[in-house]
From TrEMBL, chain A:
<dbReference type="GO" id="GO:0043190">
    <property type="term" value="C:ATP-binding cassette (ABC) transporter complex"/>
</dbReference>
<feature type="transmembrane region" description="Helical">
    <location>
        <begin position="70"/>
        <end position="94"/>
    </location>
</feature>
<dbReference type="InterPro" id="IPR047817">
    <property type="entry name" value="ABC2_TM_bact-type"/>
</dbReference>
<dbReference type="Pfam" id="PF01061">
    <property type="entry name" value="ABC2_membrane"/>
</dbReference>
<feature type="transmembrane region" description="Helical">
    <location>
        <begin position="115"/>
        <end position="140"/>
    </location>
</feature>
<protein>
    <recommendedName>
        <fullName>Transport permease protein</fullName>
    </recommendedName>
</protein>
<feature type="transmembrane region" description="Helical">
    <location>
        <begin position="179"/>
        <end position="200"/>
    </location>
</feature>
<keyword id="KW-0812">Transmembrane</keyword>
<feature type="transmembrane region" description="Helical">
    <location>
        <begin position="29"/>
        <end position="50"/>
    </location>
</feature>
Automatic annotation (TrEMBL), chain B:
<dbReference type="InterPro" id="IPR027417">
    <property type="entry name" value="P-loop_NTPase"/>
</dbReference>
<dbReference type="GO" id="GO:0016887">
    <property type="term" value="F:ATP hydrolysis activity"/>
</dbReference>
<dbReference type="Pfam" id="PF00005">
    <property type="entry name" value="ABC_tran"/>
</dbReference>
<protein>
    <submittedName>
        <fullName>Probable ATP-binding component of ABC transporter</fullName>
    </submittedName>
</protein>
<dbReference type="InterPro" id="IPR050763">
    <property type="entry name" value="ABC_transporter_ATP-binding"/>
</dbReference>
<feature type="domain" description="ABC transporter">
    <location>
        <begin position="4"/>
        <end position="235"/>
    </location>
</feature>
<dbReference type="InterPro" id="IPR003593">
    <property type="entry name" value="AAA+_ATPase"/>
</dbReference>
<keyword id="KW-0813">Transport</keyword>
<keyword id="KW-0547">Nucleotide-binding</keyword>
Length: 265, 317
């Protein structure tokens, strides 16, 4: 079903459809804030208490900063990644499972509008959670933000990329187990090994090289650069990698929607 | 104008099951059209393809002249769908479901509110507008799906077994509502297993079996094909012996009820005259089964080849 192109005459209607999906998705995570916003706040507070206050002073400085200052950007980024991903995958798969995705599929809403609408929900939740965790971190330490534009843009692009990942996972998922496999076996290990709690400078040669193949490393480091002005990798490389992954994911998502994979019989 | 046109529509599912074979169908604007067939005949596949939930293997689908492949916005905007199974978000309220659906069709919020009030009131759901949808009764859920399908004022409304599992009161109120919107100009395509419903509502009917349209005509012409009808007669008092009526096949159901088969070349007057001669008083009479149902069962008993042959003979004649 070709549903990706729209006549300019219908641009206003498309915009209303986009606003509807985006608001529907936003309203969903706000309505169930006990499941969506509160848990990451509690988990990240525990990270700050345990790794920052209790263990951190014994570890000593990392890349010229106190340990808690070093981990704050990584922990914020971890919450952005997890929440952006989980919001889209659970919402989209839920819509498939309950079949109310058909409400949108039978309507004239173009595929790119469906995609952008769901991404709006994921990016919104990712950034809101990131903001909450940032505010919590301020109770533990005052981390300076050296480059606000980089901090915000990297957070936005990362939330966008992982929302896309959640969308693709949601399209392929056939049962609830399928939406837990990727976060458990891929996302969490890559995040923990992505330099959230340590600098890759600490790793021996071969492990350092292997770490460079982990895309999350670039996002965490670019975000940390925004805060601390320090990064293990060049910031331009980080932007390039994030943007390339976003472009590939957008094209693949639109292809899947156009083919109706997992959606149309 | 043609509200819906299907041409050489084929569907082969993964695994090789051919659900539709060269289906050609035209539904004119303003019709109340019945799509009948046994389970697995292909009705829901046709509806799925029209509403773009099922990908066709080949063929052409046009809604009011707009091909669904090349002009999806125009075609889909003119189409409303009430699916067989509940497919709304059970965590949302009735209002949210309706207003979101309006949004998907690009209808602004103010207009959507006005229409939601209208349809929810007409379908008896206005007082439940703030209820979470999962708390509604089965009949209310059906009506919610109808209200949702109408929110963008479609010119063609497709209902896939909308009255399945609802009580007779709700069913009749739905019939009245559908008749009204049809009279107001909405073309309706209606799939059902209740054949008395189809006979009562639809002017034209297509019967599909094994992925092929085996009959497509108006209800009157279709019923004329019925060669005999069976009636149940309630008799005043008890019958000692079954009356022998020449030319009529009579079977006793119990001591005060007879089943009589009347061929299309016989009249009921003739039957009553014979019964009167034998001092049998008829208290009431009804069809043993729905006429369309009888015809439907007989048609489906014939192999599809026979349907094709008879269709060709009819065309030749």
């Amino acid at each position: 079903m070709r549903n990706s192109a729209v006549h300019p005459k219908y641009a206003r209607q498309t915009l209303i459809a986009l606003r509807t999906i985006a608001w529907k998705e936003t309203h969903r995570y706000l309505r169930i804030w006990l499941q969506t916003l509160l848990p990451p706040a509690i988990t990240m507070t525990l990270y700050f208490v345990i790794f920052g206050n209790l263990i951190g002073p014994r570890i000593g400085p990392m890349s010229g900063h106190t340990y808690i200052e070093f981990i704050v950007p990584g922990v914020i980024m971890m919450s952005v990644i997890t929440n952006a991903y989980m919001n889209v995958v659970s919402s989209f798969f839920g819509a498939k499972f309950q079949r109310h995705i058909e409400e949108i599929l039978v309507s004239p809403t173009p595929n790119y509008t469906i995609l952008v609408g769901y991404l709006a929900g994921g990016v919104g939740r990712g950034l809101l959670t990131g903001l909450i965790v940032t505010l919590i971190s301020m109770a533990f330490t005052q981390v300076p933000i050296q480059h606000p534009a980089i901090t915000i843009s990297v957070a936005f692009l990362t939330a966008l990329l992982f929302s896309l990942g959640g969308f693709i996972n949601g399209i392929f998922a056939r049962k609830f187990d399928d939406i837990a496999i990727v976060p458990t076996f891929i996302l969490t290990p890559l995040t923990y090994l992505g330099g959230v709690f340590y600098s890759i400078e600490l790793l021996p040669g071969v492990w350092r090289e292997l770490s460079l193949a982990n895309p999350i490393l670039y996002m965490v480091n670019a975000f940390r650069y925004g805060f601390l002005g320090e990064s293990d990798i060049p910031i331009q490389t980080a932007y390039s990698i994030i943007i390339v992954f976003i472009i590939i994911s957008v094209c693949f998502s639109l292809y899947l929607l156009r083919r109706g994979v997992g959606l149309r019989t | 104008m043609e509200a819906l046109s299907l041409s050489k529509l084929n569907k082969i599912y993964a695994g090789g099951v051919q659900a539709l074979r060269d289906v050609d169908l035209v539904v004119d604007e303003g019709e109340f059209f019945g799509l009948l067939g046994p389970n697995g005949a292909g009705k829901s596949t046709i509806i799925g393809i029209i509403s773009s939930l099922v990908r066709k293997t080949c063929g052409r689908v046009e809604v009011f002249g707009h091909p669904i492949d090349r002009e999806p916005w125009q075609a889909k905007s003119l189409l409303g769908l009430v699916p067989q199974e509940f497919n709304f978000n059970t965590f949302e309220t009735v209002s949210q479901i309706i207003l979101n659906q309006a949004g998907f069709y690009g209808i602004n919020r103010r207009t959507a509110h006005q229409r939601a009030e209208r349809y929810l009131t007409e379908l008896g759901l206005w007082s439940r507008r703030n209820s979470v949808s999962r708390t509604l009764s089965g009949g209310m859920k059906r009506r919610l799906m109808i209200a949702r399908a109408l929110i963008h004022h479609p010119r063609l409304l497709i209902l896939d077994e909308p009255t399945a599992g609802v009580d007779i009161e709700v069913r009749r109120s739905m019939w009245d509502f559908l008749r009204r919107i049809n009279a107001e100009g909405t073309t309706i395509i209606f799939s059902t297993h209740y054949l008395e419903e189809a006979e009562s509502l639809c002017r034209n009917i297509a019967i599909i079996d094994q992925g092929q349209i085996i009959e497509n005509t108006d209800v009157r012409s279709l019923l004329r094909k019925l060669t005999a009808q069976s009636f149940l007669l309630d008799i005043d008092g008890c019958l000692a012996d079954v009356p022998k009526l020449e030319d009529f096949h009579v079977v006793p159901v119990d001591e005060s009820c007879l089943e009589v088969e009347v061929r299309s070349d016989q009249s009921l007057n003739e039957l009553f005259a014979r019964l009167a001669e034998r001092n049998v008083q008829v208290v009431s009479m009804k069809n043993k089964s729905n006429r369309l149902e009888e015809l439907f069962v007989r048609m489906l008993e014939r192999p599809p080849e026979a349907h094709r042959e008879s269709a060709q003979v009819e065309k030749t004649v």
